[in-house]
Amino acid sequence: MYLTWLDSNSWLIEIGGQKILVDPWLVGSLVFGNQEWLFKGSRKSDRQIPENIDLILLSQGLEDHAHPATLKQLNRNIPVVGSPNAAKVVQELGYQQVKALTHCEIFNLNNSVEIKAVPGSSIGPTTVENGYLLKELESGFTLYYEPHGSHSPTLKEVAPIDVVITPIIDLALPLVGSIIKGTKSALEVAQMVKPQVMLPTAAGGDIEYDGLLVKFLKDIGTTQEFRAKLAENNLATKVLEPKPGIRFEVLLERRVANSFAA
């Protein structure tokens, strides 16, 4: 298994001989609803579009996960799997092979990787977006991705999970509370699924943020504090801190195979 962190929530996951591009924001700026005065993320330089992508995987339909400018740069013939909201975004952009994956539904990628949607983050009062479980069929190794720190209790059914990508610190607003949950929820998911490796996501990387909202955002927690919590709870999970744009291998030990059965 090889991973490349591409800043923010964008990842290139190489598993089972497949290259899966997750929540890509690779070019241009990030703005919600054209409100640059409120929030704007700017890249110091555009990321190179990875070659030979087998699948685009989108967890949410919001701009920081289904980034319109990036999706317009990608080949519309690449298959896309996404939450129902994300699927609507790419369909409107003219993508030809789009699968909206509902919770507990499984997508088989070229008989090499199974991708299961699990309940993820709440967006508004009625919508719950997707987290994903990816299973390499040959080895049985599994990876779990959830970008906001909302973890479904159903993960217990497929434990242990080998690799977890999720926030490990909080990003909070006064009066509102944490909009990215990591300090508590990351420990809870580690206790639930006993991962061999955890990697933080939702961090800025090589990105600069501006706007009124940014002035009030506050980071709570550190990687060092999270490692200490794992040790206090007798968890042997390793926490890796990837550098943006650098491909690396995740070394794993074989454990009891898990099943995606509902």
Describe this protein's structure:
The chain is of the alpha/beta class. The chain is 13% helix and 32% strand. It contains 4 helices and 20 strands. It has helices spanning 68-73, 84-92, 185-193, 223-232; strands spanning 2-5, 11-15, 18-22, 30-31, 40-43, 55-58, 80-82, 98-100, 106-109, 113-123, 127-136, 142-145, 163-165, 170-173, 177-180, 197-199, 207-210, 218-220, 238-239, 247-249. It has a 7-stranded mixed beta sheet with strand order 8-7-6-3-2-1-20, covered by helices on one side. Strands 9-10-11-12-13-16-19 form a 7-stranded mixed beta sheet, with no helix packed on it. A hairpin with an 8-residue loop joins strand 4 and strand 5 (40-43). The longest helix has 10 residues, at 223-232. The chain is globular. The two termini are 25 Å apart. The model has no long low-confidence stretch (mean pLDDT 91).
In short:
The chain has 262 residues and is an alpha/beta fold. It contains four helices and 20 strands.
Distance between the termini: 25 Å
* Adjacency order of strands in the biggest sheet: 8-7-6-3-2-1-20
Percent of residues in β-strands: 25-35%
Q: What is the general shape?
A: globular
Task: Tell me roughly what share of residues is in helical segments.
Answer: 10-25%
Largest sheet at a glance? 7 strands, mixed
Could you state the order of secondary-structure elements as H and E? EEEEEEHEHEEEEEEEEHEEEHEE
Ranges where pLDDT stays below 50 over 5 or more residues in a row are: none
Number of strands: 20
Topology (SSEs and partners):
Elements: E1 2-5, E2 11-15, E3 18-22, E4 30-31, E5 40-43, E6 55-58, H1 68-73, E7 80-82, H2 84-92, E8 98-100, E9 106-109, E10 113-123, E11 127-136, E12 142-145, E13 163-165, E14 170-173, E15 177-180, H3 185-193, E16 197-199, E17 207-210, E18 218-220, H4 223-232, E19 238-239, E20 247-249
Parallel strand pairs: 3-6, 6-7, 7-8, 12-13, 13-16, 16-19
Antiparallel strand pairs: 1-2, 1-20, 2-3, 4-5, 5-17, 9-10, 10-11, 11-12, 14-15, 14-18
